[in-house]
Amino acid sequence: MNPATARRVPTAPPSLRDGRIDAALRTLELAVRGRLDGLLQGNHLGLVPGPGSEPGEARLYQPGDDVRRMDWAVTARTTEPHVRETVADRELETWVVLDLSPSLDFGTAVCEKRDLAVAALAAVTHLTRGGGNRIGALVATGEETVRIPARGGTAHAQGMLRRVARLPRAPEGTRGDLTAAIEQLRRPPRRRGLAVVISDFLGEPEWERALRALSARHDLLAIEVVDPRELELPDVGTVVLADPETGRQREVTITPLMAREFAPPRPSTATGWPPRCAAAAPRT
Fold it and tell me: What is the pTM of this model?
């Protein structure tokens, strides 16, 4: 077969519903580490000045400063002696808000959105672990919110993923509350680090203000989980649509016009954020 014309086979995370969770998580770890190995090198930069190898801000020389840190370029430009601060190396603390409400118990392709959400959590976990870094999670199912403290190490990472994968599904008709989960991460204030929100971001965007406030203190990564049928409706005529978070059903007839109007807007080119998150993107 000609590689140039061969069709790419779509990949999907292993299913977590067949009772082989441990084997599925091992497969997922190998896949994630194989793709992400080498993307992050070295320690993460800290957020305060201190001993380190990365240059920070320049300031006026004070008696007792190490002359090896003199910034001769700034000194020549200002005619006053300046030294260059350095940025301290610090471990990275990552917190993940994972939405596992009933709207993610849905999938029309090779897996459910819930499986994709757990795979996204695994990717973030394996990408940020190592070097003394810590990761924790707040998992919101709509019925309960599970808090997993931030710790480091391989054993913690594997245990966290195993615990999340085994969480029971909320009953149909349970409404998720992403805003409350984000607020739990914001309060009490935590040390600055990386905050990751994994959700399908469906429903009214009541989470926008909380997400924007979270980005004011932390580096923020929003991961939107979607299913193909949320992007494009098939022309199949009359169907019954059901909302898993309210239990309501409605019979609709899909027409070409409805399919065009249903199509979501393109991702925001100004912010790079998904359409449902663009309004909450940090302003620069």
Answer: 0.68
